[in-house]
Fold this sequence. Notes:
The protein is mostly beta strands.
Amino acid sequence: MLYAPPPRVTATLVARLPEELRTADLDSGLNAGQPPGLKASSFLEGPSFDRDGVLWFVDIVNGRILTLDAEGHIRIAHEYDGWPNGLKIHRDGRIFVADHKHGIMVYDREHRRIEPLLQEYASQHFKGVNDLFFASNGDLYFTDQGLTGLHDPTGRLFRYSADGRLSCLLDNLPSPNGLTMDLEERTLFVAVTRDNSVWRVPLGRDMQPLKAGRFVQMSGGLGPDGLALSAHGELLVAHAGLGCIWMFSPEGEPIHRMDAPQGKLVTNLAFREGSPEIYFTESSTGCIYKSFTSRHGKPMFSHSL
């Protein structure tokens, strides 16, 4: 079903990655396996705020974990032989990284080292993990995308429980990407990039999938990438290739759109607890933008681990 175009705003530039940090070889590393148009000298992803208001994010193709301070300065927190694709900060301060090359990693900021947490499932390496999400009980959900797509719909959705059990929830996704949960944490939303849709995955009493289906069917661009949820249950979707963030009502209707002023490769988004500001990465220009939306004068965005 088609809907009327929602209200739209243009985001504000916060910071741009310095040219001297855009150094990846277009013919090697992760770039070597990318289709035309996605090879890049830098590729920003995975924004997440820590408790001090510092924005952490990653540069996949350069193997870097980066920070953005309140003055708009971008700094390298860590550089290593990896392809960090997603980043989330646990409530205890640990920084978890979904690394396409190595698996789920944990960065120790005190000692400035990164170590693997999960590298395989059922004695086989992951295809290429992409993004991650923490439930309030400490369970970690993450996607395993690799090079899957409509030609090979074998991408996976995993849960790593707080007590250390790893389970595969779905294994038939054509390019699973960003993910989040509804307010009750009984339903997962998963961006399925090559299907150009967001899947809705209800969880039963045993927290196993029940009657998964498409929540939003999108069009244009490359497809949905990062996801986030508002405090009122609206779903925010970074639409890579279309250069915007969409906000959908809890029923799946488009109600707001935030555009990057430059570039079409909007990859992911983050918000501060209790703030109406939303920050997002645009990878073709190496920029971080911010926008905001509020309802009835109250912050829109919910707490995230």
